C-alpha cells in the first residue's frame, strides 16, 4: 500500500482515484467540489481539506487538473517532501511541464497526460504518454498500470505533453472528417448508419468511428470530453508547433473549427459536437 495524494477529482480524476483505492492504496484526494470529495470518501479514500493536506506525507502525488494555471497554482501553494514522485496527468503546455521539473529539483517529476476520455478513465483503459527520467517512469509504472492499459515512456520532461498535443490534433481532425462524412451521406440520401458501418470495417476504420458514430448520427453530445477542453488542447498544439518552428496547416484548420464550436455556444458539449459546426457551414442545421 502506497500513500497517494490525488489533486483534481473531476470527470477523469474521480474514477482514476477510485481505481487506486480499489487497488489497495491509501488515497487522499483534494478537489474544490465537495461532492467529489464525498464521493471519494464513499469509495474508501480520504477527503483532504486542502491541496497541502493531500500532499503532506504522500509518497506519490498525482495531479489531474484542467489547465496549466491550476497546475501552477498547486505547485506554488504546496510544499512537497524530498523525493516525492509527482505525476502530473493534466494536459498542459510542454514548456510548463519542463519548468515544473526544473523548479522542483528535489522532487521526481513526470508529465503523464492521458487519452481515452471519461470512458477510458472509468474502465481503467487510458493511454498514457510519459515524459521524464526513465528511473522515475519505472517507479511510477505500477500506479499508471492501475488506471491505464497503453503506457509508454516517450522521452524527457515535456515529451508526454507533445505526444498528447499530437493526439488531440489527430482526434479533432478525425471528428471533423467523420462529421463531414455524416453530412455528405445524409445530404445525398444515403443512410449514414449503413455508410459509416462500412467505413468502420475498411481502411477508414478508427476508434472514433467505433465509439461515436451512433451517438453522432443521433445528435447525442453528452460530454465525455468537452469542446471547451479540446479548444484549450488545440491551443497547446499550436504553441508546440511554434516552439518547434514547424507549420501545421491542417492543425490550424481544426483549431479554427473547434474555436467555432465554442463561439457558437457548444463549449459544454462533447467534442463530437463538431458535427453541429459542419452542419452550420453546410447549411444543414
Automatic annotation (TrEMBL):
Domain 6-phosphogluconate dehydrogenase NADP-binding: start-end pairs: 3-155
Domain (3-hydroxyisobutyrate dehydrogenase-like NAD-binding) ranges: 158-278
InterPro entries for this protein: 3-OH-isobutyrate_DH-rel_CS, 6-PGluconate_DH-like_C_sf, 6PGD_dom2, 6PGDH_NADP-bd, HIBADH-like_NADP-bd, HIBADH-related, NAD(P)-bd_dom_sf
Keywords, alphabetical: NAD, Oxidoreductase
Catalytic residues as annotated in Swiss-Prot or TrEMBL: 164
Keyword NAD applies: yes
Pfam hit, one: NAD_binding_2
Molecular function per GO: NAD binding; NADP binding; oxidoreductase activity
GO terms, biological process: organic acid catabolic process
Coiled-coil residue spans: none
Family label: Belongs to the HIBADH-related family.
The protein's name: 2-hydroxy-3-oxopropionate reductase
Amino acid at each position: 500500500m502506497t500513500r497517494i495524494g490525488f489533486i483534481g477529482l473531476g470527470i477523469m480524476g474521480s474514477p482514476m482515484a477510485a481505481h487506486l483505492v480499489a487497488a489497495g492504496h491509501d488515497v487522499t484526494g483534494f478537489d474544490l467540489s465537495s461532492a467529489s470529495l464525498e464521493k471519494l470518501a464513499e469509495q474508501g479514500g480520504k477527503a483532504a481539506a486542502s491541496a497541502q493536506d493531500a500532499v503532506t506525507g504522500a509518497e506519490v502525488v498525482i495531479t489531474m487538473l484542467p489547465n496549466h494555471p491550476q497546475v501552477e497554482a498547486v505547485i506554488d501553494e504546496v510544499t512537497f517532501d524530498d523525493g516525492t514522485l509527482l505525476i502530473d496527468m493534466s494536459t498542459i503546455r510542454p514548456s510548463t511541464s519542463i519548468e515544473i521539473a526544473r523548479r522542483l529539483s528535489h522532487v521526481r517529476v513526470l508529465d503523464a497526460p492521458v487519452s481515452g476520455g471519461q470512458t477510458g478513465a472509468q474502465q481503467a483503459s487510458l493511454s498514457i504518454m510519459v515524459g521524464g527520467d526513465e528511473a522515475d517512469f519505472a517507479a511510477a509504472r505500477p500506479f499508471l498500470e492501475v488506471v491505464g492499459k497503453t503506457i509508454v515512456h516517450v522521452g524527457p520532461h515535456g515529451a508526454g505533453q507533445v505526444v498528447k498535443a499530437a493526439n488531440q490534433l489527430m482526434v479533432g481532425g478525425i471528428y471533423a472528417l467523420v462529421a463531414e462524412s455524416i453530412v455528405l451521406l445524409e445530404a445525398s440520401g444515403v443512410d449514414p448508419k449503413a455508410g459509416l458501418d462500412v467505413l468502420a470495417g475498411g481502411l477508414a476504420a478508427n476508434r472514433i468511428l467505433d465509439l461515436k458514430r451512433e451517438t453522432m448520427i443521433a445528435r447525442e453530445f453528452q460530454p465525455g470530453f468537452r469542446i471547451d477542453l479540446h479548444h484549450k488542447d488545440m491551443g497547446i498544439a499550436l504553441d508546440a508547433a511554434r516552439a518547434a518552428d514547424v507549420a501545421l496547416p491542417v492543425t490550424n484548420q481544426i483549431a479554427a473549427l473547434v474555436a467555432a464550436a465554442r463561439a457558437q455556444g457548444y463549449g459544454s458539449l462533447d467534442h463530437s459536437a463538431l458535427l453541429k459546426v459542419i452542419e452550420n457551414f453546410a447549411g444543414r442545421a
